[in-house]
Amino acid sequence: TKPLAGIKNTASERTFIAVKPDGVQRGLVGKIVSRFEERGYKLVAIKAVVPSRALAEEHYADLRARPFFRGLVEYMTNGKAPVVAMVWEGKDVVRQGRAMIGATNPLESSPGSIRGQYCVSVGRNIIHGSDSFESATKEIQLWFGKPGEVIDWEPANWVWTMAEN
Ligand code: IDP
Ligand code: MG
């Protein structure tokens, strides 16, 4: 069967996208889901979850030494709203997902990107997306590692959306 993160550089490539608690609190889940759907990507996993401290710390392990790390973990885990965690599949979805999301600091994000359209604070930038196929592999395993949490399915129009020619 297919690896959890699909196969890099094919139409089965997958990425981990999460609406952070501020995005959920602000009612932006639907708009964010729509942007990925409308682009032609396939939703293969979704859940609302208040992550444990351990999960949030592992998710952001590469930032452990940064001054904002404590606050970041607190904001992700305090339960004032859940995280809406998702896995999206399709051609170049890791790189395209990052481009659709925009720069980390929303003040540097292009206006048409998700962050550029919906937020202004780096500490409340509403959405996460894996920064590489390797990160996607780690993050999908971390958030959706139980058997059956990621669903293989084929939209009726998949071949029309993902055709190579
Ligand atoms: P990314 O989310 O665009 O991949 P990273 O550098 O991986 O950006 O940082 C992860 C998250 O940490 C950011 O999305 C943001 O929520 C938070 N963060 C990054 N830099 C800062 C900062 O300077 N102050 C507060 N929070 C920050
Ligand atoms: Mg990152």
TrEMBL record:
<comment type="similarity">
    <text>Belongs to the NDK family.</text>
</comment>
<feature type="binding site">
    <location>
        <position position="104"/>
    </location>
    <ligand>
        <name>ATP</name>
    </ligand>
</feature>
<keyword id="KW-0418">Kinase</keyword>
<keyword id="KW-0808">Transferase</keyword>
<feature type="binding site">
    <location>
        <position position="125"/>
    </location>
    <ligand>
        <name>ATP</name>
    </ligand>
</feature>
<feature type="domain" description="Nucleoside diphosphate kinase-like">
    <location>
        <begin position="12"/>
        <end position="151"/>
    </location>
</feature>
<feature type="binding site">
    <location>
        <position position="20"/>
    </location>
    <ligand>
        <name>ATP</name>
    </ligand>
</feature>
<feature type="binding site">
    <location>
        <position position="68"/>
    </location>
    <ligand>
        <name>ATP</name>
    </ligand>
</feature>
<protein>
    <recommendedName>
        <fullName>Nucleoside diphosphate kinase</fullName>
        <ecNumber>2.7.4.6</ecNumber>
    </recommendedName>
</protein>
<feature type="binding site">
    <location>
        <position position="98"/>
    </location>
    <ligand>
        <name>ATP</name>
    </ligand>
</feature>
<dbReference type="GO" id="GO:0004550">
    <property type="term" value="F:nucleoside diphosphate kinase activity"/>
</dbReference>
<feature type="binding site">
    <location>
        <position position="115"/>
    </location>
    <ligand>
        <name>ATP</name>
    </ligand>
</feature>
<feature type="active site" description="Pros-phosphohistidine intermediate">
    <location>
        <position position="128"/>
    </location>
</feature>
<dbReference type="GO" id="GO:0006183">
    <property type="term" value="P:GTP biosynthetic process"/>
</dbReference>
<dbReference type="GO" id="GO:0006228">
    <property type="term" value="P:UTP biosynthetic process"/>
</dbReference>
<dbReference type="GO" id="GO:0006241">
    <property type="term" value="P:CTP biosynthetic process"/>
</dbReference>
